[in-house]
Specification:
single chain, alpha/beta, Aspartate Aminotransferase, domain 2
């Protein structure tokens, strides 16, 4: 199946600066040869994990002395870290072209993002996935009713197969379609916009697994009209341990926190009480430092150094889960 979710970059746009090797960590690493001697390592598994950009790693290192607990302290460094963390949600929302009201939740990976959404499915929700899906989007739905769709031969067949399955579902209740944007095996691009239109026409929602798509193509939640998008930092030249689930907030707002623990409760008694319903509720832990500066992989802006003085500000009351894929 040859499918295009987004337009390819024109050949005329390719110049020496675009094609130049990225400055990434490990680019000068040498490895031993079985025949003896050493050679500069050639990494061929970027589809599994891409090394962090040197500029990103430098930003994380520059931030490290200013580390403070996010959403859990009144001190200067905690407030500074909280501001950086929350501002990075805005950066990610702009990178994804999210709609007004969409929510950016930081996770550990695409797998973590989709497991989070799986934990928030409404009662009776049926999930529809193609059998060709990335494992991160094929396996998290074990507690739901799942319909596996045959691998299509063409884009039109993919849309037709989904439309037929959604129309024939019984009972005709809540439904979620999970589709990958780009195959992690073949690199094929799927007709995401058309699949989203088919899902919405039949009263279903759709989540896009963009683990392979986000590093290589512009991605607009608004234009593709998907309800959620999930991706991993470690495929996008970011440090390991960071991911995103972005999109509509209502299903998450109505669900119990994904991880019970710090950050997921407002008050703890012998009967734990639920937390707020903001992005940080779904973290349940202190987020990894790599999610905080969070600008280099989605913006060319050079961040300003941390301020020498800053007026205290109450901690943000907005709300996140803090790798497999």
């Amino acid at each position: 199946m040859s499918v295009s979710a987004v337009s390819a970059v024109p050949a005329t746009a390719a110049d020496s600066s675009v094609c130049a090797p990225l400055a990434v960590l490990g680019r000068d690493v040498t490895v031993p040869l079985v025949t003896g001697g050493e050679v500069t390592y050639a990494a061929l598994d970027y589809a599994a994990s891409a090394p962090a950009l040197q500029r990103v790693w430098d930003d994380v290192a520059a931030y490290a002395p200013y580390y403070g607990s996010v959403h859990r302290g009144a001190g200067y460094l905690s407030q500074l870290s909280t501001d950086l963390f929350e501002n990075s949600r805005t950066t990610v929302a702009e990178f994804l072209d999210c709609r007004e009201g969409d929510q950016v939740v930081f996770t550990r990976s695409t797998t973590d993002s989709l497991n989070l959404l799986a934990a928030a499915l409404p009662a009776g929700c049926e999930v529809f996935v193609f059998e060709t899906e990335h494992h991160a989007s094929l396996l998290p739905w074990r507690d739901a009713r799942v319909t596996y769709l045959d691998a299509p031969r063409t884009p039109a067949e993919a849309v037709h197969t989904l439309e037929r399955a959604l129309a024939d579902r019984d009972p005709y209740g809540p439904a979620l379609v999970c589709v990958t944007g780009a195959s992690n095996v073949t690199g094929e691009l799927w007709p995401v916009r058309e699949l989203a239109a088919a899902a919405h026409a039949h009263g279903a929602r759709i989540v896009l697994d963009a683990a392979q798509l986000a590093p290589h193509h512009p991605l607009s939640v608004r234009e593709l009209d998907v309800d959620w998008v999930a991706f991993s930092g470690h495929k996008l030249y970011a440090p390991f341990g960071s991911g995103v689930l972005a999109g509509r907030s209502d299903w998450l707002r109505e669900a119990e926190p994904y991880l019970a623990g710090g950050g997921a409760s407002r008050k703890v008694t012998r009967r734990p009480q639920g937390g707020g319903r903001g992005a940080w509720t779904w973290s349940g832990t202190t987020p990894p430092p790599g999610t905080r500066p969070g600008r280099r992989t989605s913006s060319a802006c050079t961040p300003s150094p941390p301020p020498a003085r800053r007026s205290p500000r109450p901690a943000s009351t907005s709300w996140s889960p803090a790798s497999s894929t």
